């Protein structure tokens, strides 16, 4: 107690000293300016006082805490962009992730279980804290909990309408309380669109049901077993026939890439770790391997393979997400420092030198394991230099896992998709110029 009051006294003295100095400087300035400019004393004094008050206010300002919620099922860079915009409306972003039970009750089973969705949301670099048991719609009780227990200032949501089953606005309560803010929907991507890209093959198969075509059953086999090179030899690339589902409205701009970037290079003595891959349908398995890779150095450089490279190694229907979409998803991850948008398949000596790479890593759970058998191993150079390391992947998930999960439920999704697809089509038909970030 004695120490406490002593410290307090010291603080008071310090405050008085600083305050005195400020007043002294203030008086000098006041004297100087009033003598040189001859302005009215009162006016200048008022201005000075206002300036001081303003400074005080700025210093004491408590951080604005904003809240956004969602299912974050099949998370994509559109979700990340929404979180980025939400974060920009405050100083701290809390994110509510809807539980599996609530999603099942409101729109059917999620593709991604809660623990994976939590990994994904936690890894987004604009997220400060995650609330793992958010309700599907904000109830009065939950809103009070947000305001009183979590000290949330504003609830944020996109400008797409969010209607409850009973036809009411899910954010009506927050709007009424004057604590609602809106952000722009990210153009060009939606889960519906992504599922559509995957379901295209199955649609082609079902439309040919009257006239059974062995090629179409091979399409299904392709998806259910992952690798069937027969499909590739057929050359029946999805998207080339009847491709009404595979629409991507995404137009990458340089500004979006900048918004997602850290805008920093490695420090002078940074140990640079390199990892490459397709990073298609960015998932919790990717996040976990990136986290471990980042721990091995000071700067994580991620090489994203081109669409051509991915198609050549995994089949014509891959990647589901194009190079720029994949780059944005990886860039939004907090463990990533920089990406190479279109990395070569082979890690060359020149690359290692140019980027000063200290270590090249690769996860045990990956789809391109064939490289070990190939005569031209893409990691031959780092292996020969003794800077190659295989990392134990914490999660047993690949892009194929995600595709399989979606397709195992595909009928339910297709129904949902058609309904949602129609409303999205309306959105794009009705849409006019969109401003905002
Ligand atoms: C290259 O990386 C090493 C760490 O592995 C670091 O010590 C060195 O300073 C880096 N070189 C340059 C030129 O940044």
UniProtKB/TrEMBL annotation:
Ranges of residues in domain Cytidyltransferase-like: 67-196, 274-404
PANTHER family xref list: ETHANOLAMINE-PHOSPHATE CYTIDYLYLTRANSFERASE
Pathway recorded for this protein: Phospholipid metabolism; phosphatidylethanolamine biosynthesis; phosphatidylethanolamine from ethanolamine: step 2/3; Lipid metabolism
Bilayer-crossing regions: 12-33
Signal sequence, renumbered to the chain: none
Reactions performed catalytically: phosphoethanolamine + CTP + H(+) = CDP-ethanolamine + diphosphate
EC class of the enzyme, as a word: transferase
UniProt-listed GO biological process terms: phosphatidylethanolamine biosynthetic process
Name of the protein this chain belongs to: Ethanolamine-phosphate cytidylyltransferase
Top-level division of the source organism's lineage: Eukaryota
Membership in a protein family: Belongs to the cytidylyltransferase family.
EC number: 2.7.7.14
Taxonomic path: Eukaryota, Viridiplantae, Streptophyta, Embryophyta, Tracheophyta
Pfam families cross-referenced by the UniProt entry: CTP_transf_like
Record's keyword annotation contains Transcription: no
Ranges of Polar residues composition bias in the record: 208-225
GO molecular function: ethanolamine-phosphate cytidylyltransferase activity
Keywords from the named record: Lipid biosynthesis, Lipid metabolism, Membrane, Nucleotidyltransferase, Phospholipid biosynthesis, Phospholipid metabolism, Transferase, Transmembrane, Transmembrane helix
InterPro entries, per the entry: CCT (IPR041723), Cyt_trans-like (IPR004821), Ect1/PCYT2 (IPR044608), Rossmann-like_a/b/a_fold (IPR014729)
Cellular component terms (Gene Ontology): cytoplasm
Chain segments carrying region Disordered: 207-245, 418-437
């Amino acid at each position: 107690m004695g120490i406490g009051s002593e410290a307090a006294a010291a603080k008071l003295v310090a405050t008085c000293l600083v305050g005195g100095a400020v007043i002294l400087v203030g008086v000098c300035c006041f004297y100087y300016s009033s003598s040189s400019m001859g302005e009215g004393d009162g006016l200048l004094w008022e201005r000075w006082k206002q300036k001081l008050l303003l400074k005080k206010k700025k210093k004491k300002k408590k951080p604005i805490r904003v809240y956004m919620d969602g299912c974050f099922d099949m998370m994509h860079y559109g979700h990340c962009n929404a979180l980025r915009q939400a974060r920009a409306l405050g100083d701290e972003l809390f994110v509510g992730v809807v539980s599996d039970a609530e999603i099942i009750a409101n729109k059917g089973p999620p593709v991604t279980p809660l623990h994976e969705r939590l990994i994904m949301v936690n890894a987004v670099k604009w997220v400060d804290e995650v609330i793992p048991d958010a309700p599907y719609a904000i109830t009065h009780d939950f809103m009070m909990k947000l305001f009183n227990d979590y000290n949330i200032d504003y609830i944020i949501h996109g400008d797409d309408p969010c209607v409850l089953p009973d036809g009411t606005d899910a954010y009506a309560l927050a709007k009424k309380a004057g604590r609602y803010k809106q952000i722009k929907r990210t153009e060009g991507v939606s889960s519906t669109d992504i599922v559509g890209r995957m379901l295209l093959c199955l649609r082609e198969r079902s439309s040919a049901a009257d006239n059974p075509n062995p090629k179409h059953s091979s399409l299904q086999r392709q998806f259910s077993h992952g690798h069937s090179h027969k499909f590739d030899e057929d050359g029946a690339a999805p998207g080339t026939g009847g491709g009404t589902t595979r629409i991507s409205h995404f137009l990458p701009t340089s500004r979006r890439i900048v918004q997602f970037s850290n805008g920093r290079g490695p420090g002078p003595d940074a140990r640079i770790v390199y990892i490459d891959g397709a990073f298609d349908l960015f998932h919790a398995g990717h996040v976990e391997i990136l986290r471990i890779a980042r721990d091995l150095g000071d700067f994580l450089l991620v090489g994203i393979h081109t669409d051509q490279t991915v198609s050549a190694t995994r089949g014509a229907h891959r990647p589901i997400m194009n190079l720029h979409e994949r780059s944005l998803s990886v860039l939004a991850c907090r463990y990533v420092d920089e990406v190479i948008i279109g990395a070569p398949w082979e890690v060359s000596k020149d690359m290692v030198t140019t980027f000063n790479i200290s270590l090249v890593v690769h996860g045990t759970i990956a789809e391109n394991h064939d490289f070990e058998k190939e005569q031209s191993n893409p990691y031959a150079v780092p292996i020969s230099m003794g800077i190659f390391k295989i990392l134990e992947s914490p999660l047993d998930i690949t892009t194929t896992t995600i595709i399989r999960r979606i397709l195992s439920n595909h009928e339910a999704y297709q129904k949902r998709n058609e309904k949602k697809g129609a409303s999205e089509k309306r959105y794009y038909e009705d849409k006019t110029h969109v401003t905002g970030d």
